[in-house]
Each structure stands twice: as C-alpha cells, then as structure tokens.
Q: What sequence folds into this?
C-alpha cells in the first residue's frame, strides 16, 4: 500500500517525468500488439480465400479503379500511373540536361533504365499506394469501428479480422503485380517520349543504351520490392484502421498516423533491399 501510494504521488508530482519513463514500455507494448495483429491477419488469409471470394473480387476492383464517383479517376491505377509518368518525364529532363553539361547526354537511356527500375518506380508506386488505397482502408475500417459495425460482425459470428483485414491483404497482393507492371511501363514510355520527342535525341541512340542497361534481374527485384512494400503498407493501414477510436476525429488521427508510418516504411524497405541486393557493387558495368 505504501509503495503504491508513493508511485501515485510521484506520478502526480512529476507527470512529465512519469510519462517519459513509461513511454518505452508503451512503445514495446504497441509493437507487440502490431506483431500479433499482423500474424493473425496473415494466418486468416486461407479462410478469407475459401469463404469470402466475392468480397475479395470487389476489393480488387475497388483498389484498381476506385469506387463511386472516384471510379476510373481516383483509383490506385490512375494515381500511380500519373505519378510514374511525371517522375519518368522529370528524370528524362533532368538527366538529359545534367549529362549534357559534360557531353554524355547519349546516356539518358541508361539513366532511365537504371533509376526507374531500382529507385524511382518502386518508391513512387509505394507512395501512391499509401496515399490512395492505404489511406482509404484506414478510413473505412476506422469508420466501421467507431460506428460499431465491427462489433456487429462479431455478433453475426463473422470473424471481423478475416473478413475486413485478411480479404484486403489478399486483394492488395492480387492487384499489386499488374498495377506495378503498368507503372513501370508508363515510366519507361514517359522517359522515352520526353527524351526523343521533346528533347530531340535520336530514338535509336536512346533505345540502344536503354536496352543495354535494362537488366531483367533488376526488374525482378523491383517487383519483389514493390510486393514487400505493398504488404507492409496494407498491414500498417489495416492495423491503424481496425483499432481506431475516438469518433470521426480519431479516424482522422489514425489515418494520419498510418500514412506517416507507411511512408517511412516505404523508404526503409527501399534502403534495405538496395543494401541487400546491390550492396556496394552496383552490379552493372558502365564500360560494357
């Protein structure tokens, strides 16, 4: 009783110090909760595929093309496609100008094949996925949580984690490969159009350096990177949405926290995969 009273007294006298001392334990507990949630969501994938195929098909269409008034305008495919087109064009303009300063603008095709595949397209696709489908998932699940729709699913003997989370993970994994393929192709086309049609470089010269340095292995690892980023984004956003609280304002806070976390994860995954795959070698020979 005396020790408990002393702890309460210290917490009331030094509230900031008490919160600072308790924060590491809170963070560790939060990490543990997230890890458990991720494990349960992934473990529920077989049940989702077996029992909720119609919902998965609906979610695939929603992810790719959007829903309601945003269909075909605000879907992930359109947003990611626009971002990669803009990024590919910007890369071509900056690369042609910078390389031209030292007389090697002919290597713009090499720059497009190298940067688009290894860095630009994966990062831009990850940001687009987090800003569209990821934020939408957090808002949807958060609204269902505060409106007690999740509790209603439990009352109907429908496992909410499987029905709401595992189905979205399956739909996201089914959608990311074609979405990313479109994004990479659009980035290639944007770089070529900008360099050849707008900047006046020879099409044969551009295609020669582009095809020479475009590595199938790099493309494969780029797809692996995009898939890992998509899985991380889906897990993060579903967690924050599923456990949102505090009414509409709490849903907004959860969405903001999820977007910030997923953006950090996108960059971290890019860094770690680059270090793991390419290391300090770069795995290309400019003299070839």
A:
């Amino acid at each position: 009783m005396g020790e408990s009273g002393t702890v309460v007294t210290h917490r009331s006298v030094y509230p900031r110090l008490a919160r600072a001392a308790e924060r590491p334990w809170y963070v560790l507990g939060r990490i543990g909760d997230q890890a458990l949630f991720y494990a349960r969501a992934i473990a529920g994938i077989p049940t989702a595929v077996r029992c909720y195929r119609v919902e998965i098909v609906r979610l695939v269409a929603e992810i790719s093309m959007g829903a309601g008034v945003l269909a075909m305008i605000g879907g992930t495919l359109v947003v990611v496609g626009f971002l990669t087109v803009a990024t590919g064009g910007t890369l071509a303009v900056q690369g042609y100008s910078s390389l031209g300063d030292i007389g090697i603008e002919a290597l713009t095709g090499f720059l497009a094949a190298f940067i688009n595949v290894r860095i630009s397209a994966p990062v831009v696709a990850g940001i687009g996925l987090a800003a569209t489908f990821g934020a939408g998932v957090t808002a949807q699940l958060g609204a269902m949580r505060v409106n007690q729709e999740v509790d209603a699913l439990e009352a109907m003997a429908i496992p909410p984690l499987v029905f709401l989370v595992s189905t979205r993970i399956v739909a996201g994994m089914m959608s990311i490969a074609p979405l990313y393929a479109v994004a990479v192709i659009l980035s290639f086309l944007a770089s070529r159009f900008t360099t050849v049609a707008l900047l006046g470089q020879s099409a044969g010269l551009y295609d020669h350096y582009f095809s020479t340095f475009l590595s199938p292995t790099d493309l494969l690892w780029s797809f692996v990177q995009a898939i890992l980023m998509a899985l991380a984004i889906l897990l993060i956003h579903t967690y924050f949405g599923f456990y949102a609280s505090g009414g509409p304002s709490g849903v907004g806070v959860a969405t903001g926290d999820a977007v910030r976390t997923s953006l950090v994860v996108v960059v971290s995954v890019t860094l770690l995969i680059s270090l793991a795959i390419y290391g300090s070698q770069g795995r290309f020979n400019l003299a070839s």
